[in-house]
Amino acid sequence: MLSLFLASARAELLVSDFSSNVVRRYNETNGAFMDVFVPNTNGLLNLPHGLAFGPDGNLYVASAGNDSVLRYNGTNGGFIDVFVSASAGLDYPVRLIFRPDGLLYVSSQLNDRVLRFNATNGGFVDMFVTNSAALDGPSDMTFGPDGNLYVVGRFNNRVARYDGVTGAFMDVFVTNNLSQPFGLRFSPTHDLLVVSGNDGRLNRFTGASGNFAGAFTTNGPLSLPIGFVYGPDGNLYVAGFGSHKVARYDSLTGAYLNDFVTDGSGGLSGPNFMVFRPPVAPPPGLSLSAANANAAISWPAKNIPAVLEKTLTMTVPTWQRVTNSFSIDSTTNSVTLPADADRTFFRLRLLE
What pLDDT digit, counting tens, does each position of 221-239 carry? Predict the structure, then answer.
């Protein structure tokens, strides 16, 4: 017997304004400027980079210029505290990821590390990824469908892969066709998309091997793209640092759609990293159909990237990734599985 569940999803758009040392807020539907959400009246925010909403609902900002992570009220943007101080071992922090393990992962660009902190009190836990020749200038990072950590090396033009549990180095996953890379995410089809800043585009690499699969975005008025995120509509939003805008692209084809946040809107100057306020959108719905001894599970193709998982019980669920190959067309992802006499529950878990 098969049962389907939806994992919780992760919508205003918040944008780090590198040049002005503030965080600006835009309407999630039309990109209209709303306000300066973090006005930085106390002057503590210096060269803002990565943004993340924490488990407490507050906004956390990587303050690269003074090697700290700052916490702001998630409702009104008011300053709360210095969550991770400059003495904690960070050197130009960039990406922030809160994980279900109760830890905050932070990429530290100028000492080539990924550090972990307690997600409740900001206390230092350990050095998850240590300094090595494989990684030079960690910028963005993401946990992939395989559960491992993929980290951009901005200064050596590559993507390194690390064990998602231990942090041990695995391999250099992407070795070519990048020039000053910044942002990266897995796509709805589980290919890896990486910003190649000097080329002004996103490149695509196969999710299984890291082989170059071509330019994903080839048009649109972007100058020095930095970070990108998936929006409530399932499309890609890319920050153009040199063009002072946020452009929107089709997440399946890479086609340029429009300038979602227009050049300089609300004073925007040097946007780099962004976050949509959670929940960004409801998780895509799962559909089930059965024929003979097989069952097909399907969901919309255009969505925030997700992993299909299963468990045999909901009492104390042990979710495991469904590794069967899934088919893709212009509208639907689907996986065909043998029907199981035991009750099996399925869910989509959204990737970061």
Answer: 789 999 999 998 989 999 9
3-state secondary structure the chain: CEEEEECCCCCCEEEEECCCCEEEEECCCCCCEEEEEECCCCCCCCCEEEEEECCCCCEEEEEHHHCEEEEECCCCCCEEEEEECHHHCCCCEEEEEECCCCEEEEEECCCCEEEEEECCCCCEEEEEECCCCCCCCEEEEEECCCCCEEEEECCCCEEEEECCCCCCEEEEEECCCCCCEEEEEECCCCCEEEEEHHHCEEEEECCCCCCEEEECCCCCCCCCEEEEEECCCCCEEEEECCCCEEEEECCCCCCEEEEEECCCHHHCCCEEEEEECCCCCCCCCCEEEEECCEEEEEEECCCCCEEEEEECCCCCCCCEECCCCCEECCCEEEEEEECCCCCEEEEEEECC
The reported pTM is 0.92
| Structure confidence by residue, pLDDT tens digits, 125-174 | 999 999 888 999 999 999 999 999 999 999 999 999 999 999 999 999 99
